[in-house]
Amino acid sequence: MIPADTAEAQILELVMPLDSRRDVETVSLPEAAGRVLSASVVSPTDFPHWDNSAMDGYAVRYDDIAQASATQPIELAVIEDIPAGQPPQQSVAAGQAARIFTGAMMPPGADTVIMQEETERRGDRVQILATSRPRAFVRERGSYQRAGGRVLSVGSVVTATEVAILAAVQRSQVEVYRQPRIAILSTGNELVAPEDELQPGQIVDSNQYALAALVRQMGAIPVCLGIVPDDPAALKTAISQAIAEADMVLSSGGVSVGDYDYVDQILGDLGATLHIRSVAVKPGKPLTVATIKGASAPQLYFGLPGNPVSALVSFWRFVAPAIRKLSGRGGNWAAPFLLARSRQDLKAGGKRETYLWGQLHTTPSGLEFSLAPGSHSSGNLINLAGTQALAVVPIGATAIAAGSLVRVLWVGAAWPSG
Ligand code: AMP
Ligand code: MG
Fold first, then answer.
1. What confidence category does residue 414 fall into, taking pLDDT thresholds of 50, 70 and 90?
2. pLDDT 10s digits, 67-103
3. What phi and psi values does residue 264 have, to the nearest 5 degrees?
4. Ligand 1 centre and the CA of 307: distance in Å?
């Protein structure tokens, strides 16, 4: 049994990310959300594109209005109106002003904007009732970004903010990594599909569907290969097919020490290298991690434990970091831990890093963790509903008192890429 952090680091070492030249495709801007950029994006223009006004008001020459006040207003001649989207037609000379609106181009000659509230309009003249700073309310050309500079990095996940930037730099087509394909298979003679009639002793295959949902949530494509019986020949065929069709393989069940647990043996027969057999975590101790020669690149194989909670916990803790790296994402791939105050006493055996599931609450004094009521058995998936986080009781600790801070692994649907 190796510690969880060691296993995670070892797994990340083994992952070969998608290739930024080969494993790419071009998608339209609206389709880019949720995808990972396979190339950096450079701005073709300055941002702002030209000096423009941050206010509705009057574009003036600072020297003209430096002494203006409510008691001694300065009067200027208004030479034109400049709405947003329309270039100025004239230069502002001494003693002149131009009516200007938010986002409109500054006219030549003017260097400062006086907001409307500090003026009084009289026909074609305007009284300036207060002085200002030089260049006040002028958004200067290139002050946000210079042309030729990088606005988005390769490996960025495209969210709403990146979509806005891509639109602003006029990328209607976006180069992204293809979505990795993750094969999923369930092993066990006892398993039946949800639509089948349950016979005594049988168990419904929930892992296939849960894992597929997690894979999809991460922006990858689940390739569901169904239920495989505990039969070495059938397993060998299914695992070979999985390897041929995907970039990474997840199986659940069959990695314990029972008489029907054949996965490790089959992987050996197929020439895989087994790196991890078990991890000091609860739930989720039996975990097989292997590499095997795939169609194009070496592939990672995860043999997840069969118990429904163990399979999910193993995914959150070990598979999700691997998919993040595989996808071409930059930044931090590791499992995202936070600190939260526990609302209940948390108990554990002390021998393995123990994960207890529950919900996170945002409060004015910070995050709080509430433990799911009911059994925290690895076979009980019923009280997993609404799980957002796993509280961690470290090896060596048998209790964490209510009110103290606890490390929690965030497992909610969306999380920043880090
Ligand atoms: P195993 O790891 O194969 O020994 O399975 C451990 C436990 O998890 C057994 O009770 C299995 O019936 C159950 N199990 C295995 N695979 C699945 C699955 N795909 N969905 C739900 N339960 C499963
Ligand atoms: Mg089994």
1. low
2. 999 999 999 999 999 999 999 999 999 999 999 999 9
3. -60, -40
4. 5
User: Which of 279, 304, 273, 277 lies closest to 291, judged by CA?
Assistant: 273
The model's pTM is 0.94
Give residues whose Cβ lies within 5 Å of ion ligand 2: 188, 253-254, 306
186 lines ligand 1 (CB under 6 A): yes
Using the mean position of ligand 2's atoms as its centre, give its distance from the Cα of residue 254 in Å: 4
Task: Check whether the bond before 283 is cis (ω within 30° of 0).
Answer: yes
Ligand 1 contact via 303 beta carbon (within 6 Å): no
Q: What are phi and psi of 335, to 5 degrees?
A: -60, 135
Task: Compute the distance between CA of residue 66 and CA of residue 130 in angstroms, rounded to an integer.
Answer: 9
Cα 74 to Cα 5: distance, rounded to the nearest angstrom: 70
> Which domains does the chain carry?
4-18+179-326 (3.40.980.10), 27-46+143-177 (3.90.105.10), 52-138 (2.170.190.11), 337-410 (2.40.340.10)
Per-residue model confidence (pLDDT) at position 413: 78
The token pair that represents 10 in the structure block: 């070892």
Residue 120, strand partner residues: 127
**206 touches ligand 1 (CB under 6 Å):** yes
Alpha-carbon distance values, 356 to 325, 361, 373, 388, 393 (Å): 26, 16, 10, 11, 8
Tell me, using a 6 A CB cutoff, whether residue 378 lines ligand 1.
no
Please choose, from the candidates 72, 66, 54, 55, the residue with its C-alpha nearest in 3D space to the C-alpha of residue 134. 66
- Give the other-Cβ count within 10 Å of 408's Cβ: 25
Task: Quote the DSSP letter at residue 362.
Answer: E
Residue % of the chain over a pLDDT of 90:
97
Q: Establish whether residue 256 lines the binding site of ligand 1, counting it when its CB lies within 6 angstroms of any ligand atom.
A: yes
Rg (the chain; Cα; Å) = 30
